[in-house]
Design a protein that fits this description.
With about 120 residues, the chain is of the alpha+beta class. About 35% of the residues lie in helices and about 15% in strands. Strands 1-2 form a two-stranded antiparallel ribbon.
């Protein structure tokens, strides 16, 4: 199921995000932030080792979204749309696959502008 979407404005390194978005820094709190570097750009121990093995490959990728063109669906919307999710994906991706994972895969799928437009129309109507 789709729970929300984000329009990407820019991609910046985590060390730049650390400076620009202090409210997103990882600290000793719950919920924690999502910037995985410390003030020096090193791995932040508050991440508890979750991304440590991939730190070098992801430290330069912090996505900044456009709040006016991004959305998290409400619980009621998710419940309502869930029964139409597989048929919608089958239509959007021209697939007869019997399940979501056969269409999208476990690591996601690259989609084109037409498919994005169709999914956004479905989500927002």
């Amino acid at each position: 199921m789709i729970y929300g979407y984000i329009k990407i404005v820019e991609n910046i390194p985590h060390c730049e995000a650390f400076k620009r978005f202090p409210n997103k820094r990882m600290r000793n709190k719950n919920p924690n932030g999502n910037i995985i570097t410390d003030i020096r750009g090193n791995y932040n121990d508050y991440d508890q080792g979750i991304h440590k093995d991939r730190f070098e490959s992801i430290k330069n990728y912090y996505i900044v979204g456009d709040k006016t063109h991004s959305r998290l669906l409400k619980n009621e919307e998710i419940k309502h749309l869930s029964r139409y999710f597989l048929p919608t994906l089958q239509k959007v991706f021209n697939s007869k696959a019997p399940d979501v994972f056969s269409i999208i895969g476990r690591k996601g799928r690259v989609i084109n502008e037409t498919q994005i437009s169709a999914l956004l129309t479905w989500l927002n109507n």
